Amino acid sequence: MTLHFQSRFSLKALNTLGFDAVAERFVRVRSIDELLELRDEVKRSSSPLLILGGGSNLVLADAVPGIVAQLAIEGRAFEALDAESVRVTVGGGENWHELVRSSLGQGLYGLENLALIPGSVGAAPVQNIGAYGVEVKDLIEAVEVYDWAEDRVYWLDNRSCDFAYRDSRFKRESGRYLITRVRFLLSRQPHTVTSYAPLREVLSPQQREQPEAVFDAVCRIRSEKLPDPRELGNAGSFFKNPVVSAEDHRRLKSAYPSLVSFPEGEGRFKLAAGWLIDQLGWKGRRMQNVGVHAKQALVLVNYGGGDRGQLEKLANAIQRDVLDAYGVELEPEPRFYP
Ligand SMILES: Cc1cc2nc3c(=O)[nH]c(=O)nc-3n(C[C@H](O)[C@H](O)[C@H](O)COP(=O)(O)OP(=O)(O)OC[C@H]3O[C@@H](n4cnc5c(N)ncnc54)[C@H](O)[C@@H]3O)c2cc1C
Predict the structure, then answer these.
(1) pLDDT tens figures, 48-60
(2) Do 300 and 178 lie in a common domain?
């Protein structure tokens, strides 16, 4: 056996909230062969298993039972399909932002709006990461998985991943699939997306055509708006933007004319969860060692010494307030484990 299991392993540096969680056993998995060894050990010990990427979308309890396996499969392969399209196959353990940055450096475009999202390539399809008008599903051709139910490794094409807003088959059937590689279709021709108002506003008409300028602007806006997890523990946006019917949207808009919302198709509307929370005076509020970020009401932070219990209390209080005020349910975006 080449896998190296470590007992009572601190995950404090491996989750961006900085919670002092301790894994019963921890291991890094660097190849498909090691993955198959992990499968044998999970079956032999009947352990619960958590697959960990960069820990930026997880709320961990103090004690994490069973095995925590960090996926560290690396590697990139490029295949030109024609004069414009390039197929890029990337190991699930690669760093997401590094992929975005280096693709751009090689003149391969499409990922620039998704710059500075923390975490791994393998986790990107799980919640179909998105930002500034682009979702990763728009660039994914296929996802390679190890399927625990079928005990084999195979490729799922884009359609089979059932992508939706911050959702996918991998999130809905949590625990079934381990993502080993992701295949992207990138372009040598710039096709920038600058429909998102805060991005558009900071770019000149000329810059809107340049992926490098879009990348720089996204990095700048994000650094100004979002706390760096290395300085202040957080998991990015803590709640999904709720989607409501046209009727609910009309009701809310007449009660709150400044409501921030976007058409979501099929007559439905997406509400800005940050706006709903901000209006209720939550921005900058602190409860014990956790709180709501002073600049961004959608981001819950750990000031140091916070834990899952404290964060749950805060999140529940916000959810109750939002439900009472607007009749809208907020759903957390990160996964709570266990
Ligand atoms: C400051 C900040 C900003 C953020 N901004 C955004 C944003 O703009 N848009 C956005 O969509 N998200 C955002 N996020 C959330 C987060 O970065 C993404 O969800 C990211 O894809 C999580 O990657 P990770 O490797 O850290 O996953 P983890 O947190 O380690 O895991 C998340 C989930 O995916 C599962 N998982 C991880 N790797 C694999 C794998 N290889 N196979 C199967 N399952 C796996 C885990 O079991 C878990 O359920 C932000 C987070 C932070 C802290």
Answers:
(1) 999 999 999 999 9
(2) no
Quickly count: other Cβ atoms within 10 Å of residue 151's Cβ.
Answer: 10
pLDDT digits 0-9 by tens, 23-53: 999 999 999 999 999 999 999 999 999 999 9
Q: What is the pLDDT of residues 107-122, one digit of tens each?
A: 999 999 999 999 999 9
Give the β-pairing of 233-237 and 152-157: unpaired
127 lines ligand 1 (CB under 6 A): yes
* 122 ligand 1 Cβ < 6 A: yes
Same domain, 168 and 216: yes
Number of domains in the chain: 3
- d(CA 134, CA 186) in angstroms, rounded, equals 13
- Cβ pair 144, 151 in contact under 8 A: no
Strand positions, DSSP E, 92-232 = 130-131, 134-135, 140-147, 152-157, 177-187
Dmax over CA atoms of the chain, in Å, equals 64
Query: What is the whole-number distance in angstroms between the Cα of residue 120 and the centre of ligand 1?
Result: 7
Q: Is residue 238 part of a domain?
A: yes
Residue nearest ligand 1's atom 20 by CA: 119
Q: Which atom of ligand 1 is nearest to the CA of 17?
A: 53
**Beta-carbon neighbour count of residue 152 at 10 Å?**
9
**Residue positions annotated with a catalytic role:** 166, 237, 333
Give distance in angstroms: CA of 54 to centre of ligand 1: 7
**Ligand 1 mean position, distance from CA 264 (Å):** 23
